[in-house]
Specification:
The complex is a heterodimer of chains A (113) and B (114). By secondary structure, chain A is mainly beta. Chain A is built from no helices and eleven strands. In chain A, strand 7 and strand 8 form a beta hairpin. Chain A is globular. Chain B is mostly beta strands. In chain B, 0% of the residues lie in helices and 49% in strands. Chain B is built from no helices and eleven strands. The radius of gyration of chain B is 13 Å and the shape is globular. Chains A and B meet through strand 5 and strand 10 of A and strand 4, strand 5 and strand 10 of B.
């Protein structure tokens, strides 16, 4: 069974702190995506990670991929309130989108002033 | 390019009624996907099209669900004889078959079955 597990599922943190969200997946894949979802809204693409060792950064967010460990991380540096949202990782097991994406349950992130 | 659009944004229907949703993908994208998302969960894949061909269907797509993409542009998702368990957000996404295969999502249609 294709599984994607995110940890933690809920995270409350203070502004200015650093934290990491983890995404483990069950079967080999070299294509992983991170999305952000605000309440009642659709998904916004954040990062596309395509190979082992890939690292992408945008502002205070940095994502990495270790295909051997089947692990991706989303690191938040010096968090600000605007980053409060639900973050999903999603795996493309087919390698080309042919079977859709398999999503984790999401990490609900609250950043408090 | 205005992105992926979906219509309606909200739909309330009574159990047993049929409903139809529409999705307009990004114009140059030849792949179109449907997902369903329930509260507190990640989206679940339902089906996808490449041009007008429906190439994959999830086991989640029961016989009451049907999707079409007649001219390879917009797509419709119909649910017949709706049940309360069909209440969810229905998301459409599109992608190209070049580059990263990155899927861009529409705003979704929130279905409530009473």
């Amino acid at each position: 069974e294709l599984k994607v597990e995110q940890n933690p599922l809920f995270l409350s943190m203070q502004e200015g702190k650093n934290y990491t969200i983890y995404c483990n997946y069950s079967t080999t894949s070299d294509r992983l995506y991170w999305y952000r979802q605000d309440p009642g809204k659709s998904l916004e693409s954040l990062f596309v990670l395509l190979s082992n060792g890939a690292v992408k950064q945008e502002g205070r967010l940095m994502a990495s991929l270790d295909t051997k460990a089947r692990l991706s991380t989303l690191h938040i540096t010096a968090a600000v309130h605007d980053l409060s949202a639900t973050y999903f990782c999603a795996v493309d097991y087919s390698g080309g989108g042919a079977d859709g994406l398999t999503f984790g349950k999401g990490t609900h992130l609250i950043i408090q002033p | 390019d205005t992105g992926v659009s979906q219509d309606p944004r909200h739909k309330i229907t009574k159990r047993g009624q049929n409903v139809t949703f529409r999705c307009d993908p990004i114009s140059e994208h030849n792949r179109l996907y449907w997902y369903r998302q329930t509260l507190g969960q990640g989206p679940e894949f339902l089906t996808y099209f490449q041009n007008e061909a429906q190439l994959e269907k999830s086991r989640l797509l029961s016989d009451r669900f049907s999707a079409e993409r007649p001219k390879g542009s917009f797509s419709t998702l119909e649910i017949q004889r709706t049940e309360q368990g069909d209440s969810a957000m229905y998301l459409c996404a599109s992608s190209s078959t070049t580059g990263f295969y990155e899927q861009y999502f529409g705003p979704g249609t929130r279905l409530t079955v009473t």
